[in-house]
Amino acid sequence: MAGDSAMRPADQAIGCLDAAASRVTLGRVVVIVASDLAETGGLGRPAFLVVCSIAEHITILGACSESEHSGRLMGAESRNVAARLRRLRQQRGWTAADLAEECHRIGAPSLTRSTIAKIESGVRKSVTAEEVAALARALSVEPSDLLREDGPGQADEVAPHGLIRRPRRRRAEKRSTNLETRFGARCPVCGAILAAAAPLDKATGRLAQIPGFRLEVGPPDSEGANPWRLTVVGANLPPATSTQPAFSEHEVDYAYLLCGGGHIFPESAPLFSVEGPSHAEPRHVDVWNMVAAIGAPASGKTYLLVRMLQQSLDNPSNWDSADADRIRLRQASPLEQIPLEFRSRMYAETITAGLAIPPTGIDTTGAPAGILATTLPEVLDAVRDVIGRVVVDGGQRSIGWGTAYRQPLVLWTDVRGRRRTWTGLADLSGEQFASDAPGRDTAQLRRYDALVWVIDPAVHASIDHLGDVLGDRYAEVLDGSLRPGTTAHVNANVVRGNRASIETAIGRRLTVVDGPFAAAEGGLPRLLVAVTKGDLLHAALHRRTLDELGDRDSVRRGTASYLIFLGRRWAEGKLITDAPTRNLLNYVYGGDEITPAVRQRRVAQVADTLLRHYSDPDAFWNLVHAGNADRVRIPSDADPETAAPEWIDVPGIGQYVDESLAAAGRWCLRDLVTSAVGCGIAYGLGHEEALYAVLRDPAQYPRFFVCSPLATVPASPDNEHLVPLAAAVRFPQPHARSAGLTQLLFAVLEKALHAEPAGTG
User: Fold this and answer.
1) Which of the residue ranges 379-388, 433-442, 514-523 has the most confident prediction, judged by mean pLDDT?
2) What is the mean pLDDT of residues 553-572?
């Protein structure tokens, strides 16, 4: 045969296959020895070949010339692939999106969920050999398993056809285990069951706890309604599905996990980049990052989070920045993005109509039940029906499902194109931190990666001297800062006193080893302290200095304490710094040769320099808001033992962004200066005792920020509306850059940027 020069190369191949058919044949799948293929002298013209090396053998799937079928399996063969593909996928408990994710992982991104669904449903009348090989690999079977006829009563587990049997992974079991590995048995927000099976109550045979649910959502129909399917995680119960429109497992756009408390997590879904859609790219998560904002009522947490989450993570001034050093934002899935969209709309109403964001505690839209009620109300009914039927006391417990806790605000980020992070920020109601509150939510905070403690200057007596600056308008400013209408019925001092006591209680709880914020080992989540409403402090500096904001010398003690704290961490080799920061800490703290007396003089010298410089209103506002580069001059000292560097060069926010991206976890002078000044202000606002204890905790690396989400002093002239105090000034758009908010966002995303918390390297 090899010597027949008149025979076409493709015909030679087919003749070779016919000769080898006596060895192993199944339909159009033939296994031949490599030496037999060599006799053909090559195929010449393009032919339809998929070669899978198994030891010394080669599997050839359906060799046919390009002119016959254009390199595709068609007709009965394509129908076989469709039937076998559907059976093998269902056998593993996968959706089409799950299989698409696995295909993408092994290097076949063109096999999207939509493509797989079209193959299985027969919309696609043909399939290529490359697709067969990739699908077989994703399913851990041989290509021949996808081409065999799927007759009635066929066993689910099929033996691979080939000369060497490949070990097969039990993917269904692996996926179930992986689900719990990715998400954990318990919800990180509320502690309810998430990806584990709910325990059974032996007395009743029902589930003792509300289980987790898996929700699959299909594309909308012509009227905008979405099909869906709801299954119980870890329980063999029939799923609930929509009927109008009817659900099809071949058309699943998004899949979610719902914990027993209702919190929504993306289980599998396509991702969309802000630069444009990437339909071939399935969702996967490299890092889960949970953060909570805690503070007293009306402390400005929601304004802070809305503005912070929309800060730019790029430096537009650096025209030559490498794309590899970017943080790319990604589109959250539809159910995830509702809470932030809702709050952003409320912020827009503050700008356009002067309507303040209402208290977080009355925000039902932000709760999981509210999200489903406005998007998929039948799903909410189905969840409550399941709970009522299969859970102990389910009738009563189903009523409050999804209402006890709010859904976190979600931010998807992609760092350097390879580290994809889901960050959830819980905007917790300030009322729950009151001493008489049950504290159910606060007990879950120990599960979080970081806490943002928001401190409100408006509730502290240290800003009362603003009355001297503002005169008759001081009452308007108080009402605007406390929330419009608050002082119409209750004396402002009573309101401020109550909220100040809540802040103090939060600080006290942060220092208790086995308190509600403490992890199982007795430590705290990473602590970020944000002094909000920096506009009030800015206004106060027109008559006072920073050191006059609190009790005598309290601000100075706080700034000095933080410098000592950082210096000690640096001397112990536990702090990663750039060269200017290292030089300043070396001067401030020194080594073993520096006596305690000299160290104290140096610390006091630098602390006094920072407070004197930033008591100037313009310099303070530049640090907090504008973010331009700054030079802080350290006055010369006659004592040779305290001969300090002449300047502290604070980088601008653009340079800070570049440095933070290039070396995650490394401290620069802007970090040092903002934290030292912020710690001093927090001391002055009455939290010296709590923060001193935190600074002495060897496991803590607290950072401090001074922020102004509204960027100008707000006032409420009529107890209803919120307007800028200054004429011809507007509240900023959500995305407008603010230095303090940008720095806070980088700290919130530290887990996304760096595997370990800053200071542990």
Assistant:
1) 379-388
2) 94
List, in sequence order, every beta strand (DSSP E) within 335-474: 409-415, 419-427, 450-455
Q: pLDDT tens digits for 394-410?
A: 999 999 999 888 889 99
What distance in Å separates the CA atoms of residue 627 and residue 625, rounded to the nearest whole number?
Answer: 6
Q: State the distance between the two ends of the chain, measured CA to CA, in whole angstroms.
A: 69
> In DSSP terms, which residues pair with 273 in a beta bridge?
276, 330
Please state whether the predicted TM-score (pTM) of the whole model is above 0.85: no
> CA 122, CA 402: separation in Å to the nearest integer?
40
Looking from the CA of 105 toward its CB, the CA atoms found within 13 Å total 12
Exposure of 435 by Cβ count < 10 A (0-12 exposed, 13-18 middle, 19+ buried)? exposed
Give CA–CA dist 240/218, Å, rounded.
14
Residue the block writes with tokens 């939509």: 114
Buried residues in 114-141 as b, exposed as e (16+ CB within 10 A): bbbbbbbeeebebbbbbbbbbbbbbbbb
- Specify the higher pLDDT residue, 361 or 123: 123
**Scanning the structure block, which residue is given the tokens 């401030």?**
588
DSSP letter for each residue of 202-228? TTTSSBSS---EEEEE----TTSPPPE
Q: Structure tokens of 168?
A: 């097969």
In the DSSP assignment, the letter for residue 450 is E
How open is the CA angle 417-423-429, to the nearest 5 degrees? 165
* Residue ranges with strand state E in 25-158: 25-26, 29-33, 51-54, 57-61, 72-74, 126-128
**What pLDDT, in 10s, does the model give residues 310-334?**
998 888 887 776 666 678 888 888 8
657-709 confidence digits (pLDDT tens): 988 887 777 899 999 999 999 999 999 999 999 999 999 888 888 999 999 99
What are phi and psi for residue 496, nearest 5 degrees? Answer: -65, -40
Across the chain, mean pLDDT equals 79
pLDDT score, position 159: 31
Tokens 């997590």 -> residue = 265
Pairing of strands 409-415, 327-331: antiparallel
